[in-house]
Amino acid sequence: MSGRPVIAVDVMGGDFGPSVVVPGAVDAARLHDAHVLLVGDTHKIEVELRKLNLADVQFDIVQADEVVHMNEKPSDVLRRKKNSSIQVGCRLVKEGTANAVVSAGHSGATVACGMFIMGRLPGVERPALATMLPTEKNPVVVLDVGANVDCRPYHLFQFGLMGDAFARDILGYAAPRVCILSIGEEEGKGNSQVKEAYELLKLAQNINFVGNAEGRDIFVGDIDVVICDGFVGNVVIKMSEGLAASLTRMVKRVFMSGVLPALGGMLARKAFRRFARTIDYTEYGGAPLLGLQGLAIVCHGRSDACAIRNAAKMAAAYVRKNANSRLAEIILANEELTRFSRAV
Amino acid sequence: MSGRPVIAVDVMGGDFGPSVVVPGAVDAARLHDAHVLLVGDTHKIEVELRKLNLADVQFDIVQADEVVHMNEKPSDVLRRKKNSSIQVGCRLVKEGTANAVVSAGHSGATVACGMFIMGRLPGVERPALATMLPTEKNPVVVLDVGANVDCRPYHLFQFGLMGDAFARDILGYAAPRVCILSIGEEEGKGNSQVKEAYELLKLAQNINFVGNAEGRDIFVGDIDVVICDGFVGNVVIKMSEGLAASLTRMVKRVFMSGVLPALGGMLARKAFRRFARTIDYTEYGGAPLLGLQGLAIVCHGRSDACAIRNAAKMAAAYVRKNANSRLAEIILANEELTRFSRAV
């Protein structure tokens, strides 16, 4: 290894495969001082590499014979596709050859392979998928967004701890305001799972827990970490994506509804483009699966080269800051509480 | 009674109290052919009535001595505030003096009083709060949005049945496409509760169940009824409200970001105003609590007179169409299935 973070990139994943993943990974290696391992079909990777400028790029190719299809069950991928690019990527981390893996492929399979091949950090009950959403101020971290659909209160509790560590190290927030997503701001509001997790979070060591948040608080920007179970979190992120897309289409229709609005739209076009960039999901590239020995980043299937590059950039930053050590620390500092809640 | 629907309106509820609720109720009586019972402090009601034109308005005043405050527990309101405007309103329905009750007060207390004073229709396990959200096409009915935070699969199942009946009778949809909110479109995706409810919905009599919906599908307009538990539903509606408000503020900031965008904004202003009206929540006025003997409509605390009027209008339409009879019918047609699921 070169001293640089080594990032394994599953080039076979995503809607566009090697043609966008390879250039994205190569860009990350050049711009963000990482060593990338391009995992997949060597021939296809070489075809893409020939189109690129490879000066100053540290990379290796790691052959993987199999590809995971979107309709496969995560458990089947784990059992049967030992040579799939995602399994090979996770094993590179497990063996210590790579520090992190990035994939835009089957997200369920990536989560399963990350969890079972790379393994969990000591004390972590369930790794959590975190995502960053744009708000009116700074981005907010929401977790879990789909790795754990049926949760117990101590799972939610640990999501808060891991979200805190991530927001501090990767987003640079000094004392992240950690909330649990509920249906009222007052203590005592929520379903039974949330109410119990609230009790644990109040007692947590070393985090700035500020209570319940409601759905309407997420986008204002006054909270930094939002805890929820993976079912709720997945609904939330897909819904915000869907609502933003629908509103965008509706606003476009407003501009096309007459001559004056159309003229207005032309005048405001540049400003809208700048705005669109500020709420662009590709800025963060992907959703980190937190709590692993190493790190896996799950990218959107529709990721373009820029999203892949940013995901690899985030992975490199995570490794460089040794963010897992803070995460392990806060999990251990709260181990008694977790164990107590698990026992009752 | 006059043959007209009789709607009890809790005039003490909401952020603005009698000053907006009384004119809203009076407008409903005049424009939508209802007889309204203004429930609350007689003196305050009379003060408001003096400001209004009461020609052709059928109404009565029903004195209620107590007012419910927002920080009270629903169970305390139910036990101790027998003379609160919301309890008196619900009793008017229970006794057969009114057909429905409308309140913009404490929503938890309204749900509790509706459930325990008015009682459930035969076979209904849990009344559900339904709301209508604007989409790119026709409005979609989402339920439950907060009456039941901890649900069993057969509760979700019955929400689907009640949502179907409501969409047919009140929105006039011929064969509403009923979905369950989940984290993937394929059968077998979701948490354990959703997966079991899916099995029940597949077997349901007389509804057009079309499978799972994801968060991103809600606002496109290709589904008509979305089923979820009250925790998820409450998060969803508050989040969509919050995201829409945040995006609106951000778009305004775009228009103020320079001379050209500002000019563009002026040209498009009228078209945007028309658009804002199409996604205005006050159009539906409130969220009906379905499954009761009678009907309760829970309005937003911030309701203006127009929202109250539209809530009373919806209540009157509900009564006129005898929508509870269809609801009771579909619940009974699926009683065996509900009972089976409850037993396992």
TrEMBL record, chains A, B:
InterPro entries: FA_synthesis (IPR003664), Phospholipid_synth_PlsX-like (IPR012281). It is an enzyme of class 2 (transferase). Signal peptide: none annotated. Pathway: Lipid metabolism; phospholipid metabolism. Belongs to the PlsX family. NCBIfam families: plsX. Catalyzes the reversible formation of acyl-phosphate (acyl-PO(4)) from acyl-[acyl-carrier-protein] (acyl-ACP). This enzyme utilizes acyl-ACP as fatty acyl donor, but not acyl-CoA. This is Phosphate acyltransferase. The lineage of its organism: Bacteria, Pseudomonadati, Thermodesulfobacteriota, Desulfovibrionia, Desulfovibrionales. The gene is PlsX.
